[in-house]
TrEMBL record:
CC annotations in GO: membrane
Organism: Microbispora rosea
Keyword list, A-Z: ATP-binding, Kinase, Membrane, Nucleotide-binding, Phosphoprotein, Transferase, Transmembrane, Transmembrane helix, Two-component regulatory system
Family matches, as Pfam families: HATPase_c, HisKA_3
Cited SMART domains: HATPase_c (SM00387)
Protein name in UniProt: histidine kinase
Amino acid sequence: MTRTKAMAWVGGASYLLMVGLLVWGAPEAPGTVHAAGSLLAVSLLAGMVRRMPLSALAMTLIGSTAVVAGPPSAAQESLAASYQGQFLSYLAVDLVLGFVVATRARRASIVAVAVSFTVQLLLIGGFAHGDDLTVNGVIALLAIAASCMAGLLTRERREHAAALRSQEVAEAVTAERLRIARELHDMVAHSIGIIAIQAGVGSRVIQTQPAEAGEALRTIEAASRQTLSSLRRTLVALRQADGGAIGPERSPLAPSPGLSNVGQLAAATADAGVRVDVRRSGEQRPLPADVDLAAYRIVQEALTNVVRHADTGRCRVAIDFGDEELSVEVVDDGCGATGNGSAARPAQGFGIVGMRERVGLLGGHLSAGPRPEGGFRVAARLPLPEPAGSAVEAR
């Protein structure tokens, strides 16, 4: 940082040196040449303009004033003609002034504009004559106005870009929070529902049927361990997303669940008292990870609702591997919309909402509602990417 600041000051000193050489080293040159040379010399102030724009503005004011007030060329027909060309050197001031307006605070920008305009007006009033006074004054005013407008537009554009970035960050944080909320809901709701049912069964039969009570406790233990494992996997993934680790050594993450785990899900649901008939059709093949996880979570949430609300002893899960989409359907013959998360009780939970969000993110379609013949039906269609083999054959 110190080196860059030193280089910026060296550039500023070099600028003043070059202006001095132009004005007093070649006094016979036309004023327009002096002005053009000072405009080219302002490139030496690039480092100072970026880091110390107010100091750079002060230097350009000094340099441009030296060009105007320095010894005019004796080869010109009149002093007015000589000074008229030298006033162009203030364009360098206007360039730096636009950068000040674009980057500095508003109060500092106003002071810089006022000082620049006052200095230019005084020099033009002192060295211009007759009609040239009005012309050069108007030109100076228009040049300052143009530089200020360019600076203001640049400032607004930068502030707008910063606001957009902040909005994008906020939306990304919100989306991530919703994703985590869906994942935790889908992960915990199923297991807690099974635990609650099995705990109720165990408490009722612990005195009369100890064996059945023991089986209920074993189911509760298995569901609890599975939930703890899933929660730990999620927490480890969240911590490792920032490059951190939970302990001295990172534990390997278990793979995310998918449709291959539906059998285990059905077994756990059967332990809760609801027998699940799983039917698969189509050509079973590996699925994209996001589609596989979404399909599993939809089945999991639908089975959770069946266990908690349907008041039935069986349900059916149909999984169809189509060419262009994956279809998942969970149907029961229970009490329908009475408590299955339908529109009849929209505020009771977030199961259907979470399923719709998952399907919507993948560009699919979800329908959930009571069936005319009784019971409840959840059906999801998730689009699948075109297999690589098909693309090759199509060529």
